[in-house]
Amino acid sequence: MYKILIIDDEEPLREAINILGDWKGLGVDQVLEATDGNVGLAMLRQHKIDIALVDMKMPELNGSELLQIIELEFPNLLTIVVSGYNDFEYTRQAIRSKVVDYLLKPVNRVDLNAALRKGIDMLEAKREKESEFINKNITLNMSIPKLKEKMYLSIIGRSFKNQSNEAFLPLIGADRAGNYFAAGVLRVLNLEQVRKDRFHEDRDLLHFAVTNVINENNDAQFKAFSFASHKGEREFIVIFTMTGGYVEDAAFLSLHHMKKVTSTLKELFGIVSAGGIGEPYGDITDIANSYESAKSSLDGIDLLKLKGIAVMNSSTDKSLTKDSPSLTGRMPLIRNALENGNISHAKSILFEFTKRWNSSEHFSLGEADRTIQEFFILLNDIAIDLDAVPEQLQNGKDKGLHGLGISVDFASFGQFEIVLNDILDCYANSFSKSLAGNRSSVLENIKAYIDNHYFENIKISMFTDKYFLSREYLMKLFKGQYGYGIHEYVQKVRMDKAKDMLSDSSLKIQDISEMLGYKDKNYFSKAFRNYYECSPTEYRIQLLGVEK
User: Fold this and answer.
1) Is 164 a domain residue?
2) What pLDDT digit, counting tens, does each position of 474-510 carry?
3) By the 8 A CB rule, do 310 and 301 touch?
4) What pTM does this model have?
5) Residues 278 and 181 in one domain
6) Strand ranges (DSSP E) for 429-484?
7) What contacts 112, CB < 8 A, 6 or more positions away?
8) Is 393 within a domain?
């Protein structure tokens, strides 16, 4: 879709262009208006305009002057000149500024849309060419980078053998002494957002853009080579190689390069990132140690103090880094709240726990990652146990956290808390749907059990343990369904049965008391009187006229 800006001081002309333009057919989703050249220039600086229609005669900043500024500031902007003056000076400036077309007032529908179509075609051709250029470069440069990536991964995985890879050692600068190697790990903290907003959900294009920035500014002495980590799409592995110099130089240049990369990614693409740098080594196989150090440095970044981009190297003091309290101990409470349909209570339990982290001295990225994964696994285990796994995980190919379809971007502790709450919401909704269908049958089962075992010592804990429901919630559900609490219903069934039995004159009151599960005749008589305001004997006399 395209964005058009009409720059003209005459409102009737702006209105006419708005009416005459075949915007839908041209793929234009937004048409903006500027009342003069100065306003138009300000809007060009504020919005990403694809085509500007410029009137040549305007007060203060006329069309010719505006076109000259556009040439300097917006060299890729396409312009269409609109003028009521068929003057050579205007025409000459239009030609010099390489405008798409030159329209004379009054503008007619055919000429306007022809000029716009010409501009749209030029934009589409340019985009297609740029796309082809990127794809061509990816294809042409795929083989060697892929080979280097494979070699570096084998080193990091500690399966690399110098002898079997001797022919390829020059590719990674491992064929001569005097070189230093260091590893870095870059993590994109807002990957899902930026992939959607800036890269049209194209993962490969995002990876290409990030690695291209990392690999820029190489020189004869210092080089950086990067690739997406196979362990997670948010992370990129960077290998730094320095020819000659000292180990301190390699450490400084690696850190400086990574800081520059994070800043450039933010400026160009809005990518918020964090990086970790490992120690440099003179032996290529020690990249494995450097990578582990870099990963540890990245994981150790304090989320509580993270403000935008950050880079940490292995020399940074990580004395505050320690294992955070696990959510495992709180899961029974969260489970109970979710089963009872009390999502707000489950969230308050989670909030109280995260509040402890937020008030601590240090809470790292690595701890946040582990907590998210742990919380997902624990909730999923509960969901499996209750046959309430979210539909996204039942139907999709991805059975992991990504399959839930929620964003796990976080660049601050507040965003980390949002991720946890989003995961909780997802499972809470699934539990609600599943349990809503089960609760009716659960209540029917409980009622049926009481109807058939009224003479036994019935305790509510029997049902709360069996159906994993809290006492309060179960009582509330049962009374809402049948109008009685569970104890009240047991009493009702016994009293109903007592009346039926008392109508049989062959049964003694002592026998009836035992058949109903009462301790003795006196206890039964007291319960009967409380319920019917008369004793069993009085009821039988009234019913049969017989005393027993």
Assistant:
1) no
2) 888 888 889 999 999 999 999 999 999 999 888 999 9
3) yes
4) 0.57
5) yes
6) none
7) 17, 20, 21, 103
8) yes
